[in-house]
Input
Amino acid sequence: MSSSPALVVRGVVKQFGNHVAVEEVSFEVPRGVVYGILGPNGAGKTTLLRMINDIIAPDRGDITILDGLRPGLEAAQRIGYLPEERGLYPKMRVIDMIEFMGELRGLRRAEAKLRATKWLERLGLAQWAKNKVQDLSKGMQQKVQFTTALIHEPELVILDEPWSGLDPINAEVLREVVEEIRASGRTVLFSTHLMEQAEKVCDAVCIIARGKKVLDGKLRDIKRASAAEGLVALGFADDEARAKAEPVLADAGLVVERRAPRAGDVADCELKLADGAAPSQLLAALVAANVGVRRFEVVVPTLHQIFVSKVGDAAVAERRPEEAA
Amino acid sequence: MKPASDLRAMLVVARRELLERILTKWFVIMTLVGPIGMIAMVVVPALIASSSTAGTKVEIVDQSGTLGEPLAAALETKLEWHATVIDPKTPDRAELDRIRDDKINGFITIAKHAVDGGPVVYRGDNASSQAVKILLQKEVTDVVRAQRAVRLKLTQDQVTELDKKVDFESNQTTGETEGTSGMGAFAIAYILAFILYMVITLYGVAVMRSVVTEKTSRVMELMVAAVKPRSLMAGKILGVGAAGLIQITVWLAMGAITLAYRETILGWFGASGGGPGLPPLAFAEVAVVLLYFVFGFFFYSAMYAAVGAMVSSEQDTQQVQMPVTMLLVIGVVCLQVVSNAPRGDAATVMSNVPLWSPMLMPMRYVLGGATLGEVAISLGILIVSTLLVVRAAAKIYRVGVLMYGKRPTMRELVRWLRY
Output
């Protein structure tokens, strides 16, 4: 497999009327990873994905797909796409629908039919193959929709808000599929506003808000960087320990802020360390003061917390211009 | 994997559209029932015309004293009616009562001076029938004429000489051919123009609905990610058009067969021909009809596709398609202009305007109003304008397919065209 990135986005700008939907966004998706584009509704995620899929053209900037391809028909044969707007031809037979999409994405008809049959068997829909799409339940239609994105074994799979509207069973199916694609060395790019989901599956993310990139990188690096920003959860052994700790925690050279633990956490308090103060210094001071410590933990923020702290009030959802009435 | 190409994508789309259409019950039914309707158009009038009036019961109130008996005899022998000459003083009221009581079908009142031009009146429950009227008129006329001949003391030879048939016919020709029966040529041209109008409307609207369905079922985004909107639109028009072409070809073939074997088919139904004979369709005529269908369909369906891309629900289409449909209807309304004077200025101009040439030119050609050279010029204009319309429609289509909600204003439409 080539070592060129699966996707390179450079300085892409897209404007609808007076509204700048995507502003100078750049990021790079390496091969074989699961990459999340995160942001609130209206941040420009769908616009970005549509530009990669050559549905709309960027006003400025470059998009390079796989081995130096521009968005277009040739790239489309190596991309799988699950749009946020799910939809199939209601009057087509299930097997024909999948076969048709496979053919459009470059498969020969016989090959497309063969793979469609295999996919239907795998998803437990074999007995529905000859039914019309409209006769299927919503959950089954979702599965059919997955296959239309995957039938041609694309090297880059693009999923726009894949979990929205999925029932728990299909959400699990999708997670397995994503896992499988990564295991086979192919690349998944998806967008979501659900940070919990992203945290479970992403290797790397790009957070955007109001059309601008806020930060990007490997999830591990982002978390490590945020952890270094010095947040410590503390649990005391007893009330005596709490009293003994008071002078240490009052030291403005070590702790700048003391707050209640967040909901669900059993720590007694959460501390924000002063700039330049390492967690180990605080621990040493506490030990020196002979404080009975039950718990001392450098808090690794969740993606959601990182997101909120980085995006701040930019997270206010805005209406998308293309949906504006 | 096959190499990526717009052409291939277009054909894959076209195949889907074609199959989705022709594999429905309605398509099969319409394709087969259409010609049956055409056969019915030939057979039913002939059947009605030749249906027997035998057994009709009439009474004759003869005030002339000379016409009643010969008329009764003629009706009895020639038409197998039951005719009785009754008291000339019988009041109308009494006869009307007999009709009401279903004793007779009607009665004929012959005025005293009928031979000198006085009225002969038939009143009856079947007087609205064309056949009864025509048959009765002929017999009454014969009897009155015979009586006049007697008064003029004409010999039988002189009467025969007077009654000799005058051979007159009117043939439609513009000097190219010997000419065909005017009525027949008119009928066939009219039917062809109407079929073209019907099929273009039917399938143009089918293209529009297909676009709207893709928007309402939200499959559009999946599609435009895989193929260029231009290929999608072209494939759609080709696929739907192919279905229409299959249908119109079947219809024309069956129509041509019906006309060629008209007498045989009429024979199956026990009817005989008569009335104006329809001339058989020539190969060139069929070819012209098909060519105009193909390009007329492209021309209009591209417009309908653009309309479909501009709206986002089935209900909205009603209003937006109106201007396009009106353009087509103007063509149909003007069929008369062409049939009245196939070589006139109005017909010449209108059959060169691409909006109407698909309907008017085949008619003009069948009526002999245009040479193949003129057809070629009109067809050329149509083809060039079709390419322009398809290009403009593709631009509207490209921007419109992903628009949901508001319909674009004229200003926005113009902006889309400039993209």
Residues 6-46+181-418 of chain B form one domain. The longest helix of chain B spans residues 182-216. Chain B is about 65% helix and 5% strand.
